[in-house]
Amino acid sequence: MIRTRAVLATAVGCLAAASCGTAASQPTPAAPPATSAPISASSSATGAAAPDPPVTPTPGPSTTAPPTASPTPTGPPAFSAEVSRIPRERLKYSWRPGCPVPVSDLRLITMTYWGFDDKPHTGELVVNKAATDDIVAVFRRLYDWRWPIYKMRLVDVYKADDFASIDDDNTSAFNCRPAEGSSSWSRHAYGLAVDINPRENPYIYANGTGSHKNARKFFKRPVRAPGVINPGDRVVKAFQQRGWEWGGYWSGIKDYQHFSKGGN
Fold first, then answer.
1. Where are the alpha helices (DSSP H) in the chain?
2. In the chain, how many H helices and how many E strands?
3. Which of 33, 122, 260, 264 is 20 to 30 Å from the Cα of 178, by its Cα?
4. For 32-56, how does the pLDDT look when each residue is reduced to its tens digit (9 = 90+)?
5. What is the pLDDT of residues 199-214, one digit of tens each?
6. What pairs with residue 112 in β-bridges?
7. pTM summary value
8. Which residues contact 239 (CB under 8 A, 6 or more apart)?
9. Residue 140 contacts residue 122 (beta carbons within 8 Å)
């Protein structure tokens, strides 16, 4: 009987403790696992988050660049000149043994020039190595002035035929040949002369005639036309400033195309 009462008293005590819910008997709930973003209430049982609803951007200032004007067309390229040694095979007709200057003393100048078509072109001249600075300096000025040159090719393109080169209005320099009407070497044979636009600037005999029919309208000076060299003009002065003489100042014969250094 006493044992039965003790059991009942213990049971009643346990029930009372359960109904009071003391802090000592309550287990501490575990913290929820950390996540990088809140999980939507509509997540599936697998734990995958439902897609976020679309976000409507808040209107703001336009980031579209205003239309710009068309770019300004670039101008013509600047003058350029490259001086290099000339291979013997490129002087197949214009140089031969016995010429007053060896091939090793000649230089090829590849440079830009302004054409009669109002466009830049690239041409070639062969000159003495002692003349390269002068020629580059003068032709740079001609290009900057937009002073036109019809053509600039090696005389070897014409098999060193001076008449054919002149008739084609070709600007050229070195050619191992005697001076016109003489047995002496021309300054061209030394690479110290250049002929510029020979049609517009012809060789005129003392009687006022010339050898090239296509140049007749240019026999007298002054002539106002593109590519023409007149007494005292800026082309003549540009060469004179470098110590070169102009054939247009010769007495009797006039060689308007011709500039040379150290003689005729």
1. 2-20, 132-144, 162-167, 234-240
2. 4, 8
3. 122
4. 444 444 433 333 333 444 445 554 5
5. 999 999 999 999 999 9
6. 122
7. 0.72
8. 138, 245, 246, 259
9. no
